[in-house]
Specification:
7-stranded mixed sheet, binds zinc ion, 7 strands
Length: 239
């Protein structure tokens, strides 16, 4: 784990790809360093094994251009959020010094997403407390940014990921055991249905349409971003 500009934390491997894979690709192209943390190994998944998920997750991180991807073991299906897990995250934040940290919105259909969002929000704050002594120096990201998963949210900004869309979908496809594969003999799930990838496509198009581009990824923050270039921000949306 090295220092990064953006740190993406997910409850399960593939959460980040689905919600903000395009943002990683776009950011890496702009010269930003992106790190990925999966809080669990996804061991409760209906299809595949934790070993396959790990291999798929590493292949996907490579496609996205992430500097690193680490998998923690906070228990899939009952994500642990005690002091021990909080301290492990605080150390990761202090060690990797992200300027922005991304995590699930802390209220979602899957309770692990809700727990992950809360845990990361709190760890990001505590990581900045100088009087809390750990191995690494205090560091607090500028903002905790929430990505949208199952439940619809009022979002704070949308990132244009048009140029990154194909790469994002390739990264998702790296999770062969999870998503649609007509040859697979494993039990069918909501996300293994071909229609699921259509939904991802439709959501990307919808967010893109709102900002006058083809594809977008939407995010929620507690406070709005500071816009420097208002005209640029609305470019391509002439009414
Ligand atoms: Zn998940």
């Amino acid at each position: 784990m090295n220092e990064v500009d953006l740190l993406f934390v997910s409850a399960h491997p593939d959460d980040t790809e689905l919600s903000c894979g395009g943002t990683i690709v776009t950011s890496v192209k702009r010269g930003l360093r992106c790190g990925m943390i999966d809080l669990t190994r996804g061991e409760m998944g209906t299809r595949g094994t934790p070993q396959t998920r790990k291999r798929e997750a590493q292949a996907s991180a490579k496609i996205l251009g992430a500097s690193f991807r680490e998998q923690l073991d906070f228990h899939d299906g009952g994500l642990l959020t005690g002091r021990e897990q909080e301290l492990e995250l605080i150390e990761i934040i202090r060690r990797t010094k992200p300027k922005l940290i991304f995590t699930p919105y802390p209220d979602d259909r899957h309770p692990d997403h809700t727990r992950a969002g809360r845990l990361v929000t709190e760890a990001a704050f505590y990581a900045g407390l100088k009087s809390m002594k750990t191995q690494y120096d205090a560091h607090r990201p500028q903002a905790t940014i929430y990505y949208i998963q199952n439940y619809q949210r009022d979002f704070s900004f949308v990132v244009d990921v048009t140029a990154a869309w194909k790469t994002k979908m390739r990264a998702i496809a790296a999770f062969k055991s999870q998503f649609h594969d007509p040859k697979s003999k494993e039990p069918k799930t909501f996300i293994s249905d071909a229609k699921f990838l259509d939904l991802i496509e439709a959501r990307g198009r919808h967010f893109g349409m709102l900002i006058g581009s083809t594809y977008g990824e939407a995010f929620v923050t507690k406070q709005p971003p500071r816009v420097v270039d208002m005209i640029g921000a609305y470019g391509g949306r002439e009414v």
